[in-house]
Amino acid sequence: MSELKQLIEKFIELDDDLNEKIEAALGDSEELDDSFEEENKEQIEEIGEIYHEIEHMVFNEEFIIVSNANSEEKEIVALIISEEEDDAEEFVIPVFTDEEEAKNAIEIFKEQFEENEFVCDTKIGSEIVADYSEDEEFIGLAINAPQWDFVIGSEDVHDCCE
After folding, report:
1. Where are the beta strands (DSSP E) in 102-150?
2. Engineering a disulfide at 119: which of 13, 40, 69, 78 sits with its beta carbon 3.0 to 4.6 angstroms away?
3. Packing angle between helix 41-60 and helix 3-26, nearest 10 degrees?
């Protein structure tokens, strides 16, 4: 398993745990107690550190991308995430950390888009973000989607420091 995949799994686990704590702390209230952040400071900081590490790894990571093979010009699969009533169609590009994740997603895509055939290519995370940077509806990269619910915003993908 890739280091990036392990980090994201750890992030999701910690984030889910923190969300459960938030729900439990909220109860019937709409606001968290002032002490919540202090009591969970370590976990909150760890989540932030892991996310920052993911941002750097995504910048340099080689991902598998899936394209529609039946169109005249090869089109990378994009997932629309905006509501139907919205004027703009915000989207993410699904990227995959390994062939197994890509294969699983293609099976789901085939169910949704019955007539389509798909092909895989590889591309570096920063290059994918750069390809769509001019598109205002582009939100970011959905890593191992739709199996995972993890999107990294395009503005978060960077390589600033170590």
Report:
1. 118-124, 138-143
2. 69
3. 150
